[in-house]
Amino acid sequence: MRPIAEGDLLWSPAEGGAGSRLEHYRAWLRETRGLAFRDYDELWSWSVSDLEAFWVSMLDYFELETAGSWSPVLTSHELPGARWFSNLELNYAREALRQRDERPAILAIDEAGRRRSLTNRELADAVAAAAAGLRRLGVRSGDRVVAYLPNVSEAVVGFLASASLGAIWSLCSPDLGSKLVLDRFSQIEPKVLIASSAYTYGGRSFDRSDAVREIVGGLPTLTTVVNLGDAVPVAASSVSWDSLCAEPTDLFFESVTFEHPLWIVYTSGTTGLPKPIVHGHGGIAIELHKLLALHFDLGPGDTFFWLTSSGWVMWNILGGGMLRGSTIVLYDGHPGYPGPERLWQLVAEERVTYFGVGAAFLHGALKARLRPRDRFDLSRLRGVGSTASPLSVAGFEWVHRHVGEHVSVGSTSGGTDVVSAFVGPCPTLPVHAGEIQCRCLGVKAEAYDAAGAAVIDEVGELVIEKPMPSMPVFFWNDPDGTRYRQSYFDQLPGRWTHGDWVRFTTRGSCVVYGRSDATLNRGGIRLGTRDYYELVESLEAVENSLVIDTSELGAEGLLLLFVALVGGKTLDAELEGRLGGLIRRELSPRHRPDVIRQVSAIPVTLTGKKLEIPVKRLLSGVAPEEAVSRSAIANPEALDEVLEIARGVLAQRR
């Protein structure tokens, strides 16, 4: 069977996606606005050329419950500084809890197979009780409620209860160390902490009592600690989750402004203190409605499952499924426990319609030669989402062949910064191997060349030219907006520069090549790390890899390739020769590595992203405390190993 190549057609929507929610929206525009669009490209062009009309249509089409005036839609089109719907009030939790029936809202499943289901009515009752408990603790609009919880239903209940009061939510996963948590929570001065003293992962139980005590000790603004599960005697003001939720009551929703803070999420913190990003109720509500309905095609009757920890932004997006009336699946535990096909079994058992993961999960399934379609009934599954890093052509092919030809591959790229996607899936467009289907509606995304001009079919810097409602309202403790501007607007004033290297095709699809500041520039030939990793990791012996180009460091322009091998294999002369020859032949002679070294593991962030940029900065002489925060690294010993080898090689070549 011929291997699939980049750009090959893999999947086409039945009848052009005629039954999709996106097509329903197009019909609604014709009927209510007199607007007719021939295809997705025309619809997208209108959505970014008439921002006000498009985003008003989102409020109207999704029937958000609002008070006040929809005018002005935008106070300014300038970036940064654009403000949305400044005379409008609403509440995110009210939108998420509109369903009060007996359909399941949440399925919470742990790695041992224990399953808890909450109907829409039960969820609403639980949120009402938790909100009443928070009010008894003195929580009011604008107060910060933080949580140190695994991916369990109580985290969703706590978030919605907080939001219903106008309080501001922030969440960290209990596998994070206390220092990393304090780096985040201490910046926002929380009033209440909801904490779990233990979590389970890979069949092992981890006691986090000491970490909880350290976190409480480092947050002097706390007035109360709410304990989930076994009580942790951390403060005289501790209460149990059950006592917090002991008094049933009616739901109450505080009406707040469109940009009133909903939650605070954080950058990875690999190069300093994590930046606390504040998003607003309204921007998140309409952005997630748009993304999940019109791009993921989710609605009532769907079961939406994204593999995520409670500390990754995909947890926030998964929770957005409740806005759509979909059932969301929370999985707490190791994705490969007790066996590598555990999640595919879960997808079949729970009749999941959309299943999302990080690209690394799919690449791992490919390496393990899993064949889930041969073992499980995946007939109800219509889409597999992928994010966090670029999905290789081989990853696309694996889903197509071994999950199902009927399944659309929804590769997506966006980020914590906007809690959404810039580019992503589309139910009315075909899927081409290695390509993200489209620019998302309302997102004026372009690829800029070195001269600052938008280009097609050329690789360039990903730039967002116009405001989005879910762009950060502000960064916490950034009163004059300096950190916010430096993060996105210093490179191109008035344009959001995201830091990815992308190419848009003539058909409107997108290929992401990796971080633009990790680009391999050899003799004027620029290459994205995506291509490099896809090729190197196509060899069965290679489990993971990291490439560092030192040509901008003033050394000797060495290209260093580090490989972690599978199953105790050793990098011998034969494998090294195969790697070098493959790169020379398939990429370019100039990108053949000068040095290939084996390491025990590739250093990654807590969300699995390779540490290309911090390694490069450290090799250039940047002070360690400025280049990388060790507490944000999943395996700091792997970073030490890479640096020791790299520095030794560079010293020898000088």
Number of helices: 21
What is the overall shape? globular
Low-confidence stretches: none
| Mean pLDDT over the residues | 92
Structural class: alpha/beta
Oligomer: single chain
| Main sheet properties | 7 strands, mixed
What percentage of the residues does DSSP assign to strands (E)?
A: 15-25%
Question: What gap, in angstroms, lies between the N and C termini?
Answer: 48 Å
Strand order of the largest sheet: 5-4-17-16-18-19-20
The overall strand count is: 35
Radius of gyration: 24 Å
What's the structural blueprint in terms of helices and strands?
Layout: E1 9-11, H1 21-33, H2 40-49, H3 51-61, E2 67-68, E3 88-90, H4 92-96, E4 104-110, E5 115-119, H5 120-136, E6 144-148, H6 153-164, E7 168-172, H7 178-185, E8 192-196, E9 198-201, E10 204-207, H8 209-217, E11 224-228, E12 238-240, H9 241-244, E13 256-257, E14 261-266, E15 276-280, H10 281-295, E16 303-306, H11 313-319, E17 327-332, H12 342-349, E18 354-358, H13 359-367, H14 372-375, E19 383-387, H15 393-402, E20 408-411, E21 413-415, E22 420-424, E23 431-432, E24 438-439, E25 445-448, E26 454-455, E27 459-464, E28 474-475, H16 482-488, E29 496-504, E30 510-515, E31 520-522, E32 525-527, H17 529-536, E33 542-549, E34 559-565, H18 573-586, E35 595-598, H19 612-619, H20 624-627, H21 636-653
Parallel strand pairs: 4-17, 6-7, 6-8, 8-11, 11-12, 16-17, 16-18, 18-19, 19-20, 34-35
Antiparallel strand pairs: 1-23, 2-3, 3-13, 4-5, 9-10, 14-15, 15-28, 21-22, 22-24, 25-26, 25-27, 27-29, 29-30, 31-32, 33-34
Helix pairs in contact: 2-3, 5-6, 7-8, 13-15
